[in-house]
Design brief:
Length: about 500
Amino acid sequence: MKIHITNLYGDGEGTAAIIAQQNVAGIAKELGFTEMSLLSRTTRQDTDTDLRKRMHGITAAVEDDDIIIFQSPTWQEDSFRYDKMLLRTIRFHLNVRIAIFIHDVIPFMFGRSEDIWEKTIEIYNMVDLIIVPSKAMLDVLREKGLKVRKVLIQTMFDFLFNGEIKQPGFQRQIFFPGAPDRFKFLKSWNYDIPIRLFCKNFSHEKQNIDFGGWKNTTELLTEYGNGGFGLIWEQSDNSDYYKCNQPYKLSSYLMARIPVIIQKGIQNAQIIQERGWGFAVESLEEAVRIVKNITEEQYYQLTHNTKKVSFLIKNGYFTKELLLHAVNELLMDAGRNEKSLVTEEYSFLKDNGHRPEALICTNSDQIEYCEELIKTIPQMHFHIAAFTRMSPKLMNMGKYSNVTLYPGIGIDGLDNLFEKCDYYFDINHQTEMASAVYRAFLSNQLIFAFENTIHNRKYVASSHIYSVENAGKMIEDIRAIMESKAVMNEHLQQQREAIF
């Protein structure tokens, strides 16, 4: 078993959004995670075939039982198609577990439509665990339809750095890395405390904005080491978003051991105040007043208070703890005894339409009692799918009018069958194909199995598992279910409750 984490490269490198993901991936690799590299270059013109080839290349190292930490967003031009296809490709491995690590929520960040919200939540609901930047963000996502039960809340970002962190000097100045087009307050900075601004291509006439250009990590930390205050001020048209998001600037300031001035209401404002790492203020006027009036002794007390958290951030401890907690949650089945949580833990992909269409997934011709089921339940149409070519023995099943064979089926074809069929028969011997039982459960298919063929007992009601000697009872039960939608719904409920 391996643990993988996505890491983003390409357009946007050097921005805080990409650096944050690369820092998380770097910390994960220290824990032994395997990097899954993504390139932010997919366009809407890419064909499904081209994209599918790329997905298979990205996931080539993934095997059955692996864990994947999927960092979001992927910042693709066509991110919904990209993300959905990538997660579906990963799911084709047996018993894989996936966590999404949310850095930014695109429709919330940019005020997008409800349609974009629905697509975003659909992606989130495809995983087993979700990491959110705050409880406030979780509340928003729940309101929008998030149904993933396992949730972890991030404490703060880390900021990897191999150099030495020195005691900063005492300077009455404010640091801020960020573009004026996004942070409008910079364009009207008229205070007598200088602000040291780091960004690309900024022209200004304001005397107290000291433009430092774009800086890499080492250069930025060197600047901070000269002494001053780090400002976190997300004044924008969408201020509600920044009250829910995790400020990446915070970790760089604290690691450099400079005091932080943060706008009240922004994530971590309270802990900054409580731990003596800086000040939470209502206005920029208040921030400037603090910088003007603070004594040197008070300043150095604040820098002393940041010494321990600086060590933690520099060595990635917050992210390591979060990732290890995620892996532990994905591997353990704790907390599965509350039946009321069943609809929250699993986001079913469709309703069961009570159609007499049954799916069997196999990569061998050893299918228990298959021909007998086909003959004795002629009202049921059996769809038999395999990734591989089929043997003459299995191809011979195609002689029955209620059988359709799918040798060498692809991802899209199998997805269509999970959508089309309302029954699943886990009756093939040998290995399970494409986590089929789990996918059947999520597709609201009623699952039947034999004791000697069952692959994933957790998702099958015990009353739907039969000995081969008792196959007649299986047929009797299936016939009764086919005659009544109410009986079908009763058995589906038994199946959902069985996992607890």
